[in-house]
Amino acid sequence: MTATQSKPRQPLLKTALPGPKSADIIARDKQHLSTSYMRPYPFVPDHGEGVWLTDADGNTMLDFFAGIAVTTAGHAHPHVVRAVQEEVTKFTHVCLTDYPQEITTSLAERLLAHVERPLPGGNAEKWRVFFGNSGAEAVEAAIKLARNHTGRTHIISTMGSFHGRTYGAITLTGSKTKYKRGFGPLLPAVSHVPYPNPFRPPLGSTPETCAQAVIDHIESLFVGILPADEVAAIIVEPMQGEGGYIVPPADFLPKLRQLCDQHGIMLIFDEVQAGMGRTGKMFSFQHFDVQPDMITLAKGIASGLPISALLAKESVMTWPVGSHGSTFGGNPVSAAAAHATLDLLEGKVKHPGCGESLMDNAREVGGFILSELRKMQADFPFLGDVRGEGLFIGLEFVGPDGAPDGKLRDRASMAMFEKGLLNLDCGEAVIRVSPPLILTREEAETGLAIMRETFTELSADQG
Ligand SMILES: Cc1ncc(COP(=O)(O)O)c(C=O)c1O
Q1: What is the pLDDT of residues 2-38, one digit of tens each?
Q2: Cα of 162 to ligand 1 centre, how many Å?
């Protein structure tokens, strides 16, 4: 919405969903595309603008999921579009594995500026970047580098995690068995430990003690089951995405860092979903006083163009020349989109109505949504937990006994969709709010009004 419009834009549903053109595409899609695609909602996007997506029949929806936390700058942002158009006229591919290019070198420099921090004595710690195409590829690169650098094999991951669908990445994933069923054998030498979810503390702990409980659990593995000196890495999402948009207690990551230091284990932060400004800081781990040895990035990095990155300390990125690469990784057109996205995230280029930067906007508008949803909890007891940072927000549905209520979540999600609010589930009973970071307060209010209306109807149904 522009500042001069008096009424905020609303979703516009011209047909029942799906309309006739969409229904035709859905039928053909079902006939010809992979049987593994999920298709939870009958929506066929045709084009987008900002936080709005219009389908093949002209129905316009408010986008509260951003293609799973990807379209940082929204759909077809003019600054991103311009950058892509300019780059695509130069060349579309050369192969970064063989030839250095200015656009990827300067992109690496810009990303690293957000992690290289001064050491005691004034020296900044040097890091390096490997570029890939997807989150899973960044995770695969992290697994390979951790093993190659340490000479150890074992990797520890967390329950509820999601790291991607390639073989290494699904092995590390701990969220749903459907990702693994029938695909084995997976990578050997991988263990999963609980994630410290303060709303559902594991291992008989409390919200206050769950971080220490997980650390104690890992230490107990080192005593009886798994030699610590065979563990190459611990990989963790600093804020867990697919598992339910969970923010761990403040002491968890620093304690994990200490544990890793004690045993010479690499600490990998998977920032694929929570990174790139979504939580109000460039990386979600920056909400905690801690630094990892490696960081994986993808999704929001280029507002939808495919590119991913593995960032690692220079002292860690020791794999030899030729040992790892990618034909497409670090594609120049995607790199141009990433530069444009960083311009907006850092505030070098301003987006109207979004304050100093998209990161500021995520903090501000996300804080507003969080506080409004928390107010709704008083009226709707099935909203068991509202959590998150910035525009990384999870809304957990519970039954009268406090147990996760996935069925109610599914009803809420579909009802919101039918009112024109695109959303997506995660975890056992959670709806994630992960819109583009250009969402204005007025657009947030529009989405919140749809949510309130939905919850009121669900409440009435429950009698
Ligand atoms: C934390 C995390 N890591 C890795 C991935 C895998 O990314 P991709 O689907 O791009 O391979 C995802 C995707 O949802 C993710 O959320």
Answers
A1: 545 567 899 999 999 999 999 999 999 999 999 999 9
A2: 6
